[in-house]
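User: My collaborator sent over this chain with a note saying "see what the structure looks like." That's all I know about it. Can you take a look?
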Amino acid sequence: MNDTIEHALASVAERVQRSIVAVKSRAGGGTGTIWDADGLIVTNHHVVPDAAAEIVLPDGRTAAAIVVARDVVNDLALLRAQASDLSPIAREAQSDVARVGALVMGVGNPWGQRGFVTFGVIASATITGWRGAERRLIRADLRLAPGNSGGPLVDATGALVGINSMIDGGMALAVPTAIIETFVHEAVLQWKPNAA
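Assistant: Without extra context I'll predict from the sequence alone. Here is the result:
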């Protein structure tokens, strides 16, 4: 890997780190992925078992957040934080495409460490019917630990591929971006009936 590639990946990691928050709840610690600049944050359902949580912003400030929607089957939760001027995660238009062998990066807060970065490749683009549930997941060969849940899985450009949800057989399982986009869109329509 030459210096140019290393510099580019380091720049992507720095940008993605600005798009995550630490989530503190009764369940312990986790990660949230900033969805928009006005305080919408996506995390895992299992990270926020209660109706409210505290988040720690990239600059170290804390803010209160409430859960405005859940998708228990896909292990997703949408938080509304009392914060603004945030840096949302980058998203590609063709968000349903995940290529086997593509380089990916996971960013989260394992073991209380902020903005921990790990690299790997997509091992399987989609898993369906996982453990008896009708779910679609991406399997990536990268190292995750408790606290990574709810953090982004991004491609080499920093665009969101999925939200890391769990570890299985030493590999990360992530909810694909297309499922997350549908979840957030439907949640916002219910929460704000006049939203486009």
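A starting point for your reply to your collaborator: The chain has two helices and twelve strands.
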